[in-house]
Protein 1
Amino acid sequence: MSPLIYYLVAFGAYTVSIILITGQSFGWNETKKSFYLGGRRISMLPSTATFCATWISPLSFVGYSMWLYRDGYVAFLASVNGWLLGLLFFPFIVRRLREKYVLSLPEWLWRTYGDVRVRKLVALTMIFLYILYLVIQFRAFGITVSYMLDIPPGFAATSLIYLFVLYTTFGGYPSVVRSDVLNLFLIMIGVSVAAYFALPGGFEPKEALDVMLMKGSPETARKLTFAETFSAFAIMLSWGLGVAGNPQYAVRIIACRTKRDAYGMLSVSPFIVGWFYMCVTFFVLVCKAKYPLPGSMEETLAFARLGQFLPDVAGTFLLISVIAAAVSTANSQLLLAACSLCYDLFPSGTDTNANEGPFEEDRFLLLNRAAITAIASIALVLSHADLPDYLMLGRISWTLVAICFFYPLFFPKMVVKNMLFYVLSVALLLQSVLVFIIGISPEYAMLAVLILEAVLFKFNRYFMSEWAAGLGYDNRSERR
Amino acid sequence: MKLIIFCWIMFVVLIIAPGIITFYVSGKNI
């Protein structure tokens, strides 16, 4: 039977499943809290599913796979270990994030540091970086679907994700969580099946170990240069910090029913994500050893071609898992971007826990859905523009996240409240100049900018102390 | 080969560590 039949059936089944599962989440009595956070009533298992499904995006799936295929274990060190490094930070911020009863991370910054300008600045940055990140999801989805359904790549293929994402995001966070449970299930099935059927003669532990250790490959004998090692560690650090400060994970910590659920989610998630990376790494290393790809081609298309070497059913599951990864990450980011726009940037008199009439709530949520449509449309158009590859877009986004959230989230005692807005403005401006105008790698620029942020906070603290000492009074309470 | 072994050791540590940190931190906060 032609693989096209498998692909059509699988794609149809996925579409129907999403409609059936997500449709149940459209509630009549919606509030901002239920729309953005599911009323903070999400238990551990669905929270873990949405955490992991949001984690696994085409960047961490296709982008990482093709980097591994090209350069070997440097990709594993810089990206997989870098992303996992970010997980170490989360347990320290659970209490801090949840005690403010906020609906978004920009609001948390405002309530913690007392400057509404910080909220708006960070919200604006989030809209920008999530649009960039959405472009990755849209592009990967479009190319995979055009490959699967044998339709020309372009608006027709990409606009399908538009429908998926709008449908799953319109129901708010509960709808995103429901679709993420399905998406994570499909992703894990897809990569597990791909790993199991990757070896031409069937799975055999000794051969699998040889592949994982890249035995016989000339790359294993090659020593990394200092520049390569430094670059890999810089990317690892920047992606670790980017994950640690990323609002898409912080929101999931806030939305958990209890602190215990949040801690449970953070303990279980690394094992699920770890299994995913093991399967993907094994599958790609088998392909690298046994199935060379001819010439250079677009990364998602190249990944889809690798799926051709699997049996038809396994290859179908693998491609569906790419689609699931794109949808699961895109709907989370779209919801966050809309929240930043409607709730944080233009709050229009709304407040977290204010008791508003049903019409005000409905009008506000209608505006949110309009914002979701507008942001998705911009990402759809940009996904056909001549933007850099997945890894570069991810590097730009992740470094901006780290610059905005690293010190305020993890080192609150270092932050000088009344200087935070100026320090973040200078930091974001400098990062933009260094990356977009001078052309420095985003990781190197971010490291320099983070050092500058620390220096500015320290200097300010020092000069304020000197000034206060000169005036003869203790101003510690003002500075914090 | 050293790089590969380093990568996998670091990977295993990073998978297990959040649970251990969480256990330590949640003991104080729950």
Protein 2
Amino acid sequence: MVALQILTDGFAISSLYALGAVGFTLIFGVSGVLNLSHGSIMVVAALIGWYAAGDVGLGTYLGSLVGVTAAVVTAYLTYFVVVRPIQRSRTISHEETEIFVLTGTLLWGIMIQVGMAYLFSDNPVTMRPLIAGVTDVFNVRTPTNEILVAAMCWLVIGLLWLFVNRTDAGKAMQAASINPRGLTLLGYNLSHIYWLVWGIYGVLAGIAGVLLASFLGTGTNNAGQLTASAFSIVVLGGLGSVSGSLVAAYLVGYLETATAYLIAPTLRPIPALILLVIVVYARPQGLLGRR
Amino acid sequence: MRSLLKSRIFWIMVASAVVAALLPAWLSPYMLGVLTSAYYFGVFAMSWDLLFGFAGEVNFGPTFLIGLGAYSAAILNNEFHAPILLCLLAAAATALVGGVLLAVPALRLRGPYFGLVTLVAVLLLQNAIVIFAHFTGGEIGMTVFSVLSIDATINYYYALGFLLVCATLLTLLANSALGLILQASGQDALEASVLGFNVTKHKIAAFCVSAILSGLAGAMLIFYMGAASVGTVIDISIGVQVIIATILGGRRTIIGAAFGAVVLIVATEFLRPLGQLNTFVVSAVALAVILLLPDGVLGVALRTGERQ
């Protein structure tokens, strides 16, 4: 019985982790950026979506759309205000760009987090579920919304897969992650691809944020934790490997759920953290990472 | 040229030390208190700069080392009523072990991977403190049995003296052969080892020095405040402040980090009326410094002199 409960409950949270981590790994794969303001962007989508849905009165669906749009705008701001100036700076030597992008996006994330807390207070918010009601899954009473959240995550990931593998723009994006210079030689404009990839990233982070708000609820205080779990999942799976991130998301999601059910809810994050340290020591490229 | 640069840093240090030593004559005990914690923070930032600016290691968890030192001193003092000096020694020893634990992955992993491990180290330490709340006071924190002094001026001089000793030590170290080899291995480890330098040995040495000073400073801070808590010595936001301070002042300058810390803590104190937006302003200024003056304020000043 408990096993089934862990299985259903863990599935939804794992799917959400997967969606959050896919955007993070995509942006790293294509433009080499580890975006430490990731969690803050998710929280922007959640809070603005919640505000538009409730206080403005647009309803859950339109509100979610507004939230996702806000995340896309924030993602572009992150790229044009923070990431691109650092990448193009003449005074920052090439070897140090990575460190500066990490520090810059970290500070940017804190600014977003504190700014949102100022505007909306730091109380966690919960959006109204997209669907009300309860469904029995293997005799476990599960909110229908939880099933919908998991399904939406997989729908979005599936659409992303189709886009990357079946369209010209997607294939160009893949090429940019393998050899940007080669792509430029073929006459593609790299800056268009970066526009595209940051837009997609914003959509992914936004949807993850809105779904998180409707499933568990979230607030500005979660921003750091959200970044940390996306970062851990992506490193665990292998930086830049989308399938690795998916596997790692389920590993972490189920490990956390099992710990919470079987040992104690307070110990929830610990086994995943220890697993991460072990994997990073023993196999730095991650579970399915390429070198 | 090098000797001029050296002496320039030296004269800046002497001038600021004299000014700082005279300050208690004018400042209120309250402002002295602010500066006292700022000086300990300065040591955090300088030891972080040794790892980041020189060894090129992105350590997102300076508070892992600080917290280890602070909590081992606090527990020893509380459980066994050990004298402060012994507690400080224990703090340095524990932090040293922590430093070696961090150095092992640092030698194997590239930038972002190592950064993540240090972040995880802080989270694990924080969780451990909550789990062993019986000894550590958990999320609430613990008061310590002894304090350095109850007089603001004496505490101020303790902190200032400690800061000056650490600054001198680290500046000498940074300008010695060790500092140069560290810089070389931080920027291109392969080339440095091809030139015949033992990168491993030098990096471990840097981690040990940084850990001992961070741990000591953490322990001194809690014996000044009379309490240790996750929020004051371990929380990730404290680590972020250490990073901001170093970058503001100028990485790879050592004393720039100390100046950055003092400016940051004093500015935070003056921006207090802004309430929540306080952190926003501080982060925005730090981000602007990263984008416009990546070498930091002192770094720019020193490097302009170098070019003339």
